[in-house]
Amino acid sequence: MAQSAQSIRNNRRSDVGSKRQRLGQVHNTVKQGLITPFVQLATKKGVSAYVGNGLNRWAAGCVSDNARPYCLALDKSEAGYHAVGEEDVLAKDIATVISHGLKVPVVSIPADEAKTNFGWLSIFAGVDLPASSARTQPVLGWLRMDPDSF
After folding, report:
1. Consecutive H or E run containing 12
2. Fold adopted by 25-141
């Protein structure tokens, strides 16, 4: 993220236009971003897990709702928007929903065992990744759509 921010600052000094827009976990009715591999892992292991107390947060948004802020940002001179519709989704809540869907237990994994349990997903499993579109929505005139409307 720091490198992209620096690139934008450097480009402001030239004739090149740049924007940075952060996405949360992008999902639709077919694929749920990083949630899909977490479901696959829970199926394989027979448990749905989260790291520590599970209070780390993720942001998300439906793919059909995320294109609009990109288009709207092109007309703005500012850079740095968060195209997220669902904020502060707790890892423990994600694991719980997965456990109910698969009918497997939900368990907490200590942080020092995350790599062993989650493999490559451990990069994301215990990280707090909050994002808010509270600034993005009024600046761009964008209102996220209700996920139930898709």
Report:
1. helix 2-12
2. Rossmann fold (3.40.50)
Could you state, in order of their start, the residue ranges of all structural domains in the chain? Answer: 25-141
Place of tokens 């709702």: 65
Neighbours of 133 (CB within 10 A): 24
The full DSSP string for 70-128 is HHHHTT-S---EEE-SEEEEEHHHHHHHHHHHHT--EEEE-GGGHHHHHGGGHHHHT--
Which residues make Cβ contacts (< 8 Å) with residue 31, sequence separation at least 6? none
**Number of Cα atoms under 13 Å in the Cβ half of residue 114:** 17
Question: Which amino acid is it at 2?
Answer: A
H-run or E-run covering 26:
strand 25-27
pTM (two decimals): 0.75
* Tens digit of each residue's pLDDT (9 = 90 or more) over 22-77: 666 666 666 677 888 999 999 999 999 999 999 999 888 777 777 788 778 877 76
Query: 46: left (phi > 0), else alpha (psi -120 to 50), else beta?
Result: left
